[in-house]
Amino acid sequence: MFGDYDHPALPRLICRPGAVKLVPHPGADSLNQQPHRLAPDGRIAFDPQNVLRRRHRGDPIHQLLGAVVFGNVDPALKRAAMLARLRDYFRAHNVLEVSTPSLCQYPVTDVHVDSLSARAAQLQRDYYLRTSPEYSLKRLLAAGYPDIYEIGPVFRDGESGRRHQPEFTMLEWYRHAYAIDDIVSDTLSVLHTALHEAPRDLSPDRVATYDSLLFERLGVDSDASIDMLRERVGPDFPQALEHDRDAMLDWLFDQQVAAYFDDARFTAVTHYPASQAALACIDPVSQRALRFEVYRGPLELANGFVELRDADEQRARFNNDIEIRTQQGRVQYPIDDLFLAALDAGLPQCAGVAVGIDRLMMALIGTDDIAKVVSFTSH
Description:
This protein is 33% helix and 22% strand. By secondary structure, the chain is of the alpha+beta class.
């Protein structure tokens, strides 16, 4: 968007293709009276201390921007630089940036995800805010698009805390004909690029299977009996879930495996139990899901699949999700028939990854509080 932005409390921001220029507002003597300055090379620079001084004086800018998380200018600059590096990476690898709708006809059936709804009053129709661009991006792939990616907002109900907000920014991309080793390697390269670091010899990335990591810490794998799993979860595990095998595996992996991952490197976990495949296909040899996640220390950053292409199998999984949601007294969502039609028409062999940009920012600046890496919170 190009043009001039004008407000009596703000410096004039003049935008033209290829240039951004900041000049004092006519009502100000100089830029020094405003929370911005020009760096020697002519770029915009920010003075957080000036912002805070103006805040305490009660200047109009703070009446206008009262919801801004003040003092977060530096993370915003780091975020902009990170996004530029990511776009440069994908451009260099011939991955096309696309944009898909945030307002969707269908939600997801995932047992662990709840959607936010929106009512179009004049149309008398309910929509959902996307929890991921996944279904739309796969529809583009089925329509013949090349390797693609998108960076944009996503929304999830009930997500709140030090690591979660109901609205956050997601990067998602898809590569044609990638096997699991290929997409894991690509993901690690993307993450190193985002954090502006080269892979290190002293703390190389670790790639290991889900079962090998579980056995390393607990002496069992995902085929262990439910009684053996009960012995290892201990008294802190919710009794209401003691018959839920996947819930116990999730709890054990989160609390007793991922919690001990090395903070100094990425850990990629591959080949999840088939019961946790979601939208991934099953490896015919190991009978494990061709799904992976990448962590930095205990912080999950990426979740990826070698994508399931069988529409009938995907519909069966969706119906299973709905059955579980019903048993748990959760909201039941309709199945996305447009997505299934795309699978039926022919999704090419591909692999895809979703990465939380806010989580990446947390890793970049070294915090466990998402509020420290965003300019606005959801509260």
